[in-house]
Amino acid sequence: MISRVSVRLISRRCFSHSAVRREIRDIAELPDRIHPKYQEARNNDLLTLHWPSPPRNILITKKPSAPSITTLVIEYAQHIHSTYPSTNLIFRPATAHEIQCSLPFPIYTAFENRDTENDPGFQDKVDLICTLGGDGTILRASSLFATTDHVPPVLSFSMGTLGFLGEWKFKEYKRAFREVYMSGANAGYGSALLEDEHHHGNETHSGAAAAQSEHNLLSGWSSIRGKSMGPGRGARVLLRNRLKVGIFGADGQRVTEPETETAGGDVYAMNEVILHRGIHPHLAIIEVFIGGRFLTEAVADGMIVSTPTGSTAYSLSSGGSIVHPLVPSLLLTPVCPRSLSFRPLVLPANTPITLRLSEKNRSEEVEISVDGVRMSKGLRLGMEVRVWGEELERETHGLEKHEKTWRGGVPSIVRGSRSGLGENEDHWVGGLNGLLKFNYPFGDDGASQ
Amino acid sequence: MISRVSVRLISRRCFSHSAVRREIRDIAELPDRIHPKYQEARNNDLLTLHWPSPPRNILITKKPSAPSITTLVIEYAQHIHSTYPSTNLIFRPATAHEIQCSLPFPIYTAFENRDTENDPGFQDKVDLICTLGGDGTILRASSLFATTDHVPPVLSFSMGTLGFLGEWKFKEYKRAFREVYMSGANAGYGSALLEDEHHHGNETHSGAAAAQSEHNLLSGWSSIRGKSMGPGRGARVLLRNRLKVGIFGADGQRVTEPETETAGGDVYAMNEVILHRGIHPHLAIIEVFIGGRFLTEAVADGMIVSTPTGSTAYSLSSGGSIVHPLVPSLLLTPVCPRSLSFRPLVLPANTPITLRLSEKNRSEEVEISVDGVRMSKGLRLGMEVRVWGEELERETHGLEKHEKTWRGGVPSIVRGSRSGLGENEDHWVGGLNGLLKFNYPFGDDGASQ
Amino acid sequence: MISRVSVRLISRRCFSHSAVRREIRDIAELPDRIHPKYQEARNNDLLTLHWPSPPRNILITKKPSAPSITTLVIEYAQHIHSTYPSTNLIFRPATAHEIQCSLPFPIYTAFENRDTENDPGFQDKVDLICTLGGDGTILRASSLFATTDHVPPVLSFSMGTLGFLGEWKFKEYKRAFREVYMSGANAGYGSALLEDEHHHGNETHSGAAAAQSEHNLLSGWSSIRGKSMGPGRGARVLLRNRLKVGIFGADGQRVTEPETETAGGDVYAMNEVILHRGIHPHLAIIEVFIGGRFLTEAVADGMIVSTPTGSTAYSLSSGGSIVHPLVPSLLLTPVCPRSLSFRPLVLPANTPITLRLSEKNRSEEVEISVDGVRMSKGLRLGMEVRVWGEELERETHGLEKHEKTWRGGVPSIVRGSRSGLGENEDHWVGGLNGLLKFNYPFGDDGASQ
Amino acid sequence: MISRVSVRLISRRCFSHSAVRREIRDIAELPDRIHPKYQEARNNDLLTLHWPSPPRNILITKKPSAPSITTLVIEYAQHIHSTYPSTNLIFRPATAHEIQCSLPFPIYTAFENRDTENDPGFQDKVDLICTLGGDGTILRASSLFATTDHVPPVLSFSMGTLGFLGEWKFKEYKRAFREVYMSGANAGYGSALLEDEHHHGNETHSGAAAAQSEHNLLSGWSSIRGKSMGPGRGARVLLRNRLKVGIFGADGQRVTEPETETAGGDVYAMNEVILHRGIHPHLAIIEVFIGGRFLTEAVADGMIVSTPTGSTAYSLSSGGSIVHPLVPSLLLTPVCPRSLSFRPLVLPANTPITLRLSEKNRSEEVEISVDGVRMSKGLRLGMEVRVWGEELERETHGLEKHEKTWRGGVPSIVRGSRSGLGENEDHWVGGLNGLLKFNYPFGDDGASQ
Ligand SMILES: NC(=O)C1=CN([C@@H]2O[C@H](COP(=O)(O)OP(=O)(O)OC[C@H]3O[C@@H](n4cnc5c(N)ncnc54)[C@H](O)[C@@H]3O)[C@@H](O)[C@H]2O)C=CC1
Ligand SMILES: NC(=O)C1=CN([C@@H]2O[C@H](COP(=O)(O)OP(=O)(O)OC[C@H]3O[C@@H](n4cnc5c(N)ncnc54)[C@H](O)[C@@H]3O)[C@@H](O)[C@H]2O)C=CC1
Ligand SMILES: NC(=O)C1=CN([C@@H]2O[C@H](COP(=O)(O)OP(=O)(O)OC[C@H]3O[C@@H](n4cnc5c(N)ncnc54)[C@H](O)[C@@H]3O)[C@@H](O)[C@H]2O)C=CC1
Ligand SMILES: NC(=O)C1=CN([C@@H]2O[C@H](COP(=O)(O)OP(=O)(O)OC[C@H]3O[C@@H](n4cnc5c(N)ncnc54)[C@H](O)[C@@H]3O)[C@@H](O)[C@H]2O)C=CC1
To answer: Annotated Gene Ontology MF terms (chains A, B, C, D) (predicted)?
Structure first.
């Protein structure tokens, strides 16, 4: 407890450089993350979010180099801190440094120079992700969890430049956060939850965080409940399938991307993986295999393997169909293929896809990008990229009905309309029409044909 | 029994007109159909066909008005009859009349003038469908089962004009039929099967067919087994999702298509349902709703709602993506839309889609076609077409592992390569490359770029 | 003169049925048409309209069965009649009958029961066409001149349902008409024009119309000039290439379409000619020849041969590129081709294109439509459709510079912006962006990305 | 003369390094180039090549780093040298160094270290270009003439990897060269030609080349004529429009690309100019103006402005229509636009098009490529790329009919079929079907549907 007090004192002297360093705490100090459940609702493809106990560790990410957004991030953080005092706010290192002086309470980060093998990272601690920015901000946040199949739920606010994935408008942030925070805290199994929370707490909390956990029990849901619109209303979640990308060297070994800290492992992508000729002037020649069988040789600027979520991103620009995020599939879309007959394909999500550089390829390598971020090393002859759709698993084994849950994907909190039934597709249909100008009518004012 | 004898005699005098009539027997005389099981195989999205007892009632359909195919149908029928004496051959009425004189044994049909409410039809009797023709022949055969969710397995031979859905070449017919006939007749539950057959026989056979059933027990699998390539080899089945189409009048009541005998019910389509302006010169204006919510107003020649199977048919010509038949989805593809921004959509199979004529539409009605067959009445103002993807159900409840099965869809017998692993996609990838000339390489001979 | 007076008297008794008949006069009574010149302007691909003498015979066409437009037609006619008293107003027969009682002066038409071989038709008499309606109205008006290569200039007003070809808004009609009427009436060659007019008049006028011609000389331009914005301002004209369609029987003879009165001749289309399977369920199979050489066999719903003007009509919906109306070319665009590799083609305007039904085609005939109007007879085996781009000819031979002119095409009066240079493309670029929503930006309000 | 003899001697000692240097002569020594005429033929859009006197200076270019092609280049050069002794063979510097030892006669080049302002280059000396390689080789050869509007005729042989622009097969090289060499040397104006040649010779030849010119008069056409297939047969030429690209700095001044030696001038492209995001991960944002007027803001990977010739290159891969090389037009095709409604446009060849980086663009610059070659500097904010179609001019002023000619474009020698009429489109239609697999039929063998 002493350390916390001193930090608070120090934070008032934020102009002092040495003080600043201490104000940003190590994420390792936080209790371990809480895994919510995602339960099926009647007549609805969206799931309902159920916290076993109130979320505590909130990651807030933002679009970089946009000062106006930084201001709003501070406003947001202050609101969360004062309304939900038992929560801890986590930021990416750069953001933490940028805003810590503006916040009169300690914040957390996963320091970049930590031992990534042993020290905990975001994926060990974050209960809930909040993003303030555009689609890129959501993609970047999701890529912090590129090596785990348990991504925390994502509450995304689109800011100005409207994105397709960003569900909420910033001005709704109070209602939105409350809805997510309270989700699943319904009277019905209140006591069970409390117990569960106790149990959970004992097991996972440690050090300075343990006391805080106690505090949660008192100040968490119960203190908020009065403000809530009713305990039974759950936040709705769209589980967005990702795809898993593994890069293999000519020796058959996995190639590691040092920057993403994926020690020898595969990474998940929310939108897509792309091979592209990049700066090389000549057409890339890429061999495509599906299910282990040779499908075709693409002579093209590049090849995209996309999730349904990514079907409205690069794949769309390259002529792919728009695929609803709930269709379990992968899209194979060529970029500027030198062919009249390379129609985009939609494959079952569980089809393994392999991409190799052809021996006929004229440059030494082609670029590999995951969710719009280029990897430091390209694909060379002999190497291969292997892609699988992420399998969303329904965990049912030995569970009571209300305990069944889903796992995998990016659990995206969907903005609900107040009215009920049949409005579930709101967000997607709304995005098609409102943002992508899908089938936009001809005529003078866009209103009538 | 007397009548049967006389029929046989008469059949030798096929030139006699009155005799001919009697030679074609009523399908009602046949034992009820046998429902096979479709079981999951390891590492394979295809299912394995398991007959509880040997199939008996074989429907053979063919492409109409193609004399050369008629000759092959006769050859095929004679082979089945002589090699599998306990089978009964069923034909559509027109085909039965066309070929009966060429066959020295009785054949069966469902007479057109029967009481469709009470008298049994193809869906009550057929164990196995064999089609000789092109994709149209398969579509027509499947539409004989447009009102049931238990379509018999389909063994399709493509004849000359090669189709995408037709799996087998005619010259393979002996091997193909044997493989299907024997499928699942493995040593393991041989005796159980015999018993089952007894039981089944007693329960369902009736009248003249009962004696024949006994014959089956002796002459069925056991008599063939020696010729088989080994009892354990099962035919592989691709369950092709259909979609269900209901047409509703302005009064909210289902509209019946008299010709398809769908008394007040919905029909299933294997490829697609299409609304099209048809002969009307002006663009059709159609409102599209998904999940009960307004999606868009299509100003177009027409609108296609297609299954993944149909993604290589009309939807392809209209610019839709190619969707693998195992992706549980529906395609919404406009035909010549008067819009720059109507990109084809791929929706979850369980999304209900509704199409309505807009009040702005200038003609009185638009055509409705199901699998390429135009309905006798078009869609008028106030009416609506409702479409759902067929749900393939996995029946597991209370069943032993080997009893679990799938239901729904069109169970299509896939032509397997002899080698095993990884070759499962053969038929589809092969069709893309070999038939649709997918990503056909530029260059002088199509072999090198 | 007597007859004219009596008509005037009679017109006051329009309720009398017999009187009505006489009030609509025969177009034959009018003086022959005046052919304007189209001269090149500096730095400008648009031409300038030059009347040798004021236009007299004005054809007004309208969208059928739209009562609100009929009212505006009457307003328009009354304005022309009272402001330009020396003009005569011509209508299509149905319109003439519909509105004559509302107009207190005689109107003209080409009666449908006239001897089309010998009696003059619209193409012999009309100086200027005004259309009130949408694109269809312009197409229908243009098709009244489908057999001549001298289409009168077209002043088109779009009414409500905005069209792409309609240049002017109805509320601008006074300015628009004055601009066109005065176009070329500049001081410079005023007297020459008067002479020309005399000459022309003597040669061509006849009967009752001769006196009126005299009147023109006094009341034409000179009476209006004061109201004009200056004599030198010429209306700008976009010459829209048409294409010429000839249909030939199996005997090699031209087939005549009775309804369009094209006695044995070819017809011009402003948008396109289309072959389409129409009501036949099966794909049409059409052989395409260019320059006499076999190009390809289209297996499709249909084939479009389009002008650049038509590139924003049906061809657009079928996936064709947008071609600027000043590119001398023909578009060959398939409708729903059963091919992955049938990319639309743009050919030189002078390439002869021939379309034939293949022997493999399964229906007896395919529909032929010209500018959206289906011909009474379809294309059958052995017949062929031959298409050429209309050649816009520059008549220069032995002419002074200011006399050079262009001939052919549909001379469409373009709506000019007040400012000068560089704004010539206004109408087309404006139409792309404003009406077709070309490259419509993504984002919330369509204003920002 | 002495120097030449010594060179010959030296050439036998090609292993000596110093000797080698002298064997490659400076192109400045050659007589100035001869400009052929391109005359219109009846019923034919192709032109006929007419040499006023036999061509002398032959540039031979080849695909780099392909040893097998080098061997054929030597074979080709030896054939030309021995059969047409009055010709001089020119190579690019690298090729000259690569092959000189294999050729027992002097060859010419334009040395890279020459004073490009004052010393003559390829465009001053080359009469005829022969390319051995693929489309890239033709593009590179054409780019040697990127600053002149008089490109010599191009005789292109495609080697192995078949190209779309390469007309001839290498095995035809003897016939092909003879046909081009003799083209226009018809009896009719033989003597006039001789005179012309005298005259021309006096005027332009200089130094050591003068004597050679005399030799030409004797050994040129007259010596070959016997071998020719008849003097009247002219080589047919397709004039391929290029486009002209100017790059302007923020200061409004032209930016020079040092490598292409285009001192302050514009360059011509045969295929296209492309702006592309290149290595930058974010979408490029480019403003497009046509005719000085804002057309649209492209948010895309890039923008292509292409000639009709380039319509089968990158523009095709990006979804553009195929435009026949004789349609005077420019294509505006976006590369992967983030828009559902950016349909490719075809504009009149004389429309000026301007591309600018938007202020919203996120990277500092975008790549500029001309005919597949990236410029050393990209396009930055404030700069602009201006593009015009090259105007093919018909020079008629004061000329006799047979003297009229065309100027501009890349005069490409088309491979003629022996038969006459109607076969003119051979090369293009043949290329579509044979190489690009245009509308390639579905079905088993590509032969029947
Ligand atoms: N994604 C794509 O389609 C890309 C296309 N290119 C094209 O390549 C051209 C440069 O050619 P290379 O240096 O050989 O590059 P490259 O080695 O990448 O080959 C380009 C391909 O385009 C073909 N090609 C070039 N011009 C053509 C034409 N006018 N019509 C039909 N095919 C044509 C060539 O035969 C070759 O197959 C550029 O002008 C550009 O048009 C360049 C980059 C990407
Ligand atoms: N699926 C489609 O896109 C179809 C298009 N059409 C087009 O309609 C034309 C006939 O027009 P209507 O009789 O009014 O039929 P309609 O009432 O079906 O309307 C056709 C639509 O096309 C527009 N249009 C016509 N010509 C155009 C042009 N040159 N550029 C841009 N838009 C144009 C009209 O404004 C109208 O919105 C035909 O020439 C054909 O091009 C006809 C049938 C189907
Ligand atoms: N423009 C087009 O592409 C049109 C396509 N069709 C399609 O034809 C089907 C009816 O077939 P038919 O009665 O034989 O008509 P049809 O004789 O017009 O032939 C249709 C063609 O489509 C092929 N086909 C049918 N289903 C297919 C599938 N699932 N995948 C790949 N190819 C397929 C057939 O092999 C045949 O080549 C309809 O369900 C519709 O999908 C019907 C009309 C026009
Ligand atoms: N030509 C193209 O369309 C290109 C697209 N991209 C896409 O951009 C993504 C990376 O995004 P940023 O880093 O923000 O790059 P960015 O700044 O280039 O923006 C990409 C655009 O795509 C939108 N976007 C991203 N994901 C989307 C989705 N799933 N659905 C709809 N729109 C989506 C964003 O809102 C933004 O407008 C990549 O995953 C890739 O899909 C990247 C490069 C080129």
So the answer is: ATP binding; NAD+ kinase activity
Same structural domain, C206 and C306: no
CATH code for the domain of A371: 2.60.200.30
- Asked if residue C158 is part of any domain, the answer here is yes
Does one domain contain both C140 and C257? no
Instruction: Assess contact for C98 and C28: CB atoms under 8 A.
Output: no
Question: Which class for D395: exposed (0-12), middle (13-18), buried (19 or more C-beta within 10 A)?
Answer: middle
Cβ–Cβ gap B436/C374 under 8 Å: no
| Shortest Cα distance, chain D CAs vs residue B247, angstroms | 32
Name the residue facing A300 among D317, D372, D438 (closest C-beta): D317
**Does B343 lie at the interface with D, CB-CB under 8 angstroms?**
yes
If DSSP states are collapsed to H, E and C, what string results for chain A?
Answer: CHHHHHHHHHHCCCCCHHHHHHHEEEHHHCCCCCCCEEEEECCEEEEEEECCCCCCEEEEEECCCCHHHHHHHHHHHHHHHHHCCCCEEECCHHHHHHHHHHCCCCEEECCCCCCCCCCCCHHHHCCEEEEEECHHHHHHHHHCCCCCCCCCCEEEEECCCCCCCCCEEHHHHHHHHHHHHHCCCCHHHHHHHHHHHHHHHHHHCCCCHHHHHHHHHHHCHHHHHCCCCCCCCCCEEEEECCEEEEEECCCCCECCCHHHCCCCCCEEECCEEEEECCCCCCCEEEEEEECCEEEEEEEEEEEEEECCHHHHCHHHHCCCCEECCCCCEEEEEEEEECCCCCCCEEEECCCCEEEEECCCCCCCEEEEEECCEECCCCEECCCEEEEEECCCEEECCCCCHHHCEEECCEEEEECCCCCCCCCCCHHHHHHHHHCCCCCCCCCCCCCCC
Given the CA of residue B163, which atom of ligand 3 is nearest to it? 35
Q: What is the pLDDT of residues B183-217, one digit of tens each?
A: 987 634 343 333 333 444 344 444 444 444 444 44
Looking at residue B111, what is its pLDDT?
93
* Residues A334 and A213 both lie in one domain: no
Alpha carbon of residue A324 to chain centroid: 18
Last residue of a domain, one of A219, A239, A259: A239
Taking phi over 0 as left and psi of -120 to 50 as alpha, with beta for the rest, A284 belongs to beta
* Residue D136 Cβ < 6 Å to ligand 1: yes
Look up the CATH number of the domain holding residue B101.
3.40.50.10330
B296-345 pLDDT, tens digit per residue, is 999 999 999 999 999 999 999 999 999 999 999 999 999 999 999 999 99
Q: Is the CB of C161 under 6 A from ligand 2?
A: no
Q: At residue D34, what is the residue type?
A: I
Return the best residue to mutate from C271, C324, C369 for the ligand 2 pocket (most ligand atoms within 8 A of CB): C271
* Contact A382/C at CB under 8 A: no
- Same structural domain, D192 and D260: no
Closest C-alpha residue for ligand 4 atom 22:
A313
Does one domain contain both A206 and A249?
no
pLDDT in tens, C174-192: 999 999 999 987 634 343 3
The tokens describing D435, both together, are: 């190489």
Interface predicted TM-score of the whole assembly (ipTM), two decimals: 0.90
Number of domains composing chain A: 2
> What is the rounded distance in angstroms from the CA atom of residue B8 to the CA atom of residue B16?
13
Q: Quick one: which ligand is closest to D280's CA?
A: 4
Whether C231 and C269 map to the same domain: the answer is: no
Domain check: are D209 and D290 in the same one? no
* Domain-embedded: residue C38: yes
For residue B219, the model assigns a pLDDT of 55
Indicate if ligand 4 lies below 6 Å from the C-beta of A315. no
The range of the structural domain enclosing residue B329 comes to: 243-389
Go through chain C and tell me how many residues it has.
449
Nearest CA in chain A to D319: A336
Question: D356 with D341, same domain?
Answer: yes
